[in-house]
Design brief:
The complex is a heterodimer of chains A (307) and B (257). Chain A is α/β, with parallel strands linked by helices and 307 residues long. Helix content of chain A is 33%, strand content 29%. In chain A, α2 packs across α3 and α3 packs across α4. The radius of gyration of chain B is 20 Å and the shape is globular. The chains are: A alpha/beta (307), B mainly alpha (257). Chains A and B meet through β7 and α2 of A and α1 and α4 of B.
């Protein structure tokens, strides 16, 4: 099966009189499968937006190549299959929501009646049907983001590039946009997200790549990356002897009124804990596996484990 | 064609709402309305003053609108990042540039048409007649502004709006003096000066071709064959604009936005 997005040694170099040559994107090799939600993470200046701009054919790579649905990303015909929601998008604020959608639909050469029907449907889908005749200048940030998503869906794209789709939104708008993205994934669309909102990425992405200063520093599915967390075991009727035996080997143990709480690394040592508790006739109440948090992994990766 | 039309109509819609352009237009209309009052400056040449001042206002305000509007079209799209959303659609860069240029032309045409109608009205109310040759000036001025807008569009692909403002106006001024400048310098003994004058004459657009106030104001001054002259200046404007837009596309196509 053709990858929805593929890059091979994609590099973008900028030259400056003061800083010399700098690789903003350095040998980027990624493959995004059709129908998955892919997250591109990294701190500011990591090269995420530059990578997206190359994939959209807005800027040229210095070397390497990228393909969208098997076609060179510089081929403007690929744009019929994709859509882009930029970070902090700006729309001509004298236009109404319906007018801006009409403008973008014309860029896709969508004919009159079909255009009208699609616009009405999308305004309904993003919850802006009642505000369609309002100038965009009067829209809230959340409404602007929703009209942005609507313009992304005009051409019924197979791939969506979303740059910070939930950035700066209030909690309600945040959840609405997140749910909309999940709904789009369920419809079979491939979604490429660049975001700082790690909790969102953790909830919705299937796979992520972390970039730092143009380089890929970590990649994998979230299950792979966040495995190896910790397990919490809670048991009653435990003794001081059990508490003492469980101390050490990375376990955090506390005992209060016969209730023992053990927090151990998820590396098989939980079985030893359970065996010990059963042998001592303690009553095991719960065993809760806790995955690593993406935020912790991100900080650990970006700081080399120094924080 | 649909994409070009969509971009052009959006550019027009946005331009007519720009306060700075509306102020310039209001200034032009205001000056045209007070034109009959200037007759007192030269009571014996009432018609001459009325015509030369009125046509001069249309031309100068047209030039100001052309430059102020066009210099910011591309940089503003980049600064506001609206260009990213547009170029991520199936829109080629040349279509974007052409759409912006045509939107700019439509705005200039609309504003010049409004000033022309105002001037004709003021002239009629003042003189109770409307000489037909009065209508010859504004269309030629529009062609002049088309070249000027193309100059500004060309520079906007690689210089900042401020630099572009001075460059475009500088070229407009030199181009307006092209004929007398070339005539006086081409006969000089100094070969370098002669070469420089010839170079400027052929490279810079000859805006002077479109300054037809003289035959309108002074009936004694005639253009030998008006139809041939008009055809020549139309072709010149189309050719020159085409060259500038082609160069603009070549530069913009490789530009990082």
């Amino acid at each position: 099966m053709t990858a929805a997005i593929r890059t091979e040694n994609l590099t973008k170099t900028y030259s400056s009189r003061w800083t010399g040559k700098r690789n903003v994107v350095n040998n980027l090799n990624i493959e995004v499968k059709e129908g998955e939600i892919f997250g591109l993470l990294g701190p500011n200046g990591a090269g995420k937006t530059t990578a997206i701009k190359i994939l959209l054919g807005i800027i040229y790579p210095t070397s390497g190549q990228a393909w969208i649905m098997g076609h060179d990303c510089m081929d403007v015909q690929t744009h019929y299959q994709l859509s882009y929601l930029p970070e902090k998008p700006y729309y001509y604020d004298h236009m109404t929501g319906a007018e801006i959608l009409d403008f973008y639909a014309r860029l896709f050469h969508i004919g009159g009646l079909e255009r009208k029907q699609r616009i009405e449907k999308l305004l309904e889908q993003v919850g802006l049907a009642g505000d369609a005749r309002k100038p965009i200048g009067q829209y809230s940030k959340g409404m602007q983001q929703r009209i942005g998503l609507a313009q992304c869906l005009l051409n019924e794209p197979r791939i969506l590039f979303l740059d910070e789709p939930t950035g700066g939104l209030d909690p309600v708008a945040h959840i609405e946009i997140r749910n909309l993205i999940l709904q789009l994934r369920d419809e079979g669309k491939t979604i490429f997200i660049s975001s700082h909102e790690l909790s969102d990425v953790e909830r919705i992405c299937d796979r992520v790549v972390m970039m730092d200063k143009g380089d890929v520093v970590k990649e994998g599915t979230l299950d792979e990356l966040l495995a190896g967390g910790r397990v919490e075991v809670i048991a009653d009727h435990a003794s001081q002897e059990m508490h003492d035996k469980l101390q050490g080997n990375g376990a955090i143990v506390s005992l209060s009124d016969g209730r023992l709480i053990v927090d151990v690394p998820d590396d098989g040592s939980v079985n030893q804990v359970l065996d010990l508790l059963r042998t001592g006739n303690a009553q095991i109440n719960s065993v809760i596996p806790r995955r690593k948090r993406l935020e912790d992994l991100f900080v650990e990766t970006m700081t080399g484990g120094g924080v | 064609m649909g994409a070009i039309y969509a971009i052009a109509s959006t550019t027009l819609g946005e331009a007519v709402r720009r306060k700075v352009l509306l102020v310039i237009l209001l200034l032009g209309v205001g000056l045209l309305i007070i034109t009959p009052g200037l007759n007192q400056l030269s009571p014996r040449q009432e018609t001459t003053v009325l015509l030369s001042f009125g046509l001069g206002v249309i031309q100068m305000i047209g030039a100001l609108v052309a430059v102020v509007l066009t210099i910011s079209l591309i940089p503003q799209e980049i600064e506001r990042r609206t260009i990213y959303t547009i170029l991520s659609k199936p829109v080629q860069r040349h279509q974007f540039l052409l759409g912006k240029f045509l939107g700019s032309l439509a705005t200039i045409l609309m504003m010049m048409a409004l000033m022309t109608v105002t001037f004709l009205l003021v002239y009629y109310l003042s003189k109770h007649s409307l000489p037909i040759n009065l209508l010859a000036g504004p269309p030629l001025f529009f062609l002049q502004m088309m070249i000027l807008a193309a100059v500004a569009m060309f520079f906007s692909t690689f210089v900042s709006p401020l630099v572009n403002f001075f460059l475009s106006f500088g070229i407009y001024m030199v181009g307006n003096l092209a004929n007398p400048l070339f005539e006086s310098l081409s006969t000089t003994e100094n070969q370098l000066t002669r070469f420089g004058a010839t170079l400027i004459h052929y490279v810079l657009p000859n805006f002077a071709n479109y300054n037809v106030q003289n035959p309108i104001i002074n009936p004694g001054s005639m253009i030998a064959n008006t139809q041939v002259y008009n055809l020549q200046v139309i072709l010149y404007a189309v050719f020159y604009t085409g060259i500038l837009l082609t160069l603009a596309v070549v530069i913009f196509d490789r530009r990082e936005v």
